[in-house]
């Protein structure tokens, strides 16, 4: 098994989630990711919960397999060092507010002068153009502006964000995909390029059929709770002891469900003959299913519906998830020995290849852990110079 990006050098100016998630994917596939952080402070996420022995679990997860170097990018010597590092880098990734890298003299226009075929990716809330380009954003802002919150939650309750920071993660994944496309293009043409990824744009891109409901039929989608906007029954139901979800996206699946329920007469009910009709009359169908669900245990329902090949699942807690045998056998929970903390468990690399190895090889770096390694082994600075940089708070 090989690491396809073992010779790829990424200079990482990212922080918090979207950018670090993007570069984590490359690091898991073997890329040499050098994370540039602020001296003394570091990535903001180093100060995010949860903590153990003074270290952030948030940071540990998103920055495994990377190296950390602290640099004051506003200092003359700090900028000189980073320009040298850019010369030997294949990719630059940053997720500062638009304009920040330009103020530092490290925007694509300047970087391209010293590394003409660089691939330079910027991730931001609203992109590098448009009336909102300068607007600061975190995940909840992107979810709100990207339409996600308007369709999440129950119709009689206030809008809510997705539990996880889906706009951040989605932007990071799209950025990684874009960088891969740019790498392929560079292999073919020899040319690098600039990549502009916006959290709002990528959130809109995963709104499924909600935008089309409006553009096709003028319908402004509303919050549906756990219901699907285009299929029924597709919902969460309370059982005798917990909850389950089911998804019957076809007539065949619906027939299987009602046979398990011993409600075969529903097959001949004209209100439920097709998916469109079931969605239209779901308020009449839901009580029938809910009543049946409430009589039996979660385990019984899952056993019966699994046997009938009806998509069904319990709603797992994080504690149940971490211990689940499906994730265990697929190496989706991995143990990492974090210096100063000890053995910790985190999600593994989520893609399985036949010829490529995506894995967690090293823990997240301590702040500036690799300063001397980079300065001495790559820039060939002597000990005296390194100590001078520390004293002047350049590193």
Automatic annotation (TrEMBL):
Molecular function (Gene Ontology), one example: CoA-transferase activity
Lineage top rank: taxon: Bacteria
Entries under InterPro entries matching the protein: CoA-transferase_III_domain, CoA-Trfase_fam_III, CoA-Trfase_III_dom3_sf, CoA-Trfase_III_dom_1_sf
Keywords, alphabetical: Transferase
Keyword Transferase: yes
Coiled-coil residue spans: none
UniProt protein name: CoA:oxalate CoA-transferase
Lineage: Bacteria, Bacillati, Bacillota, Negativicutes, Veillonellales
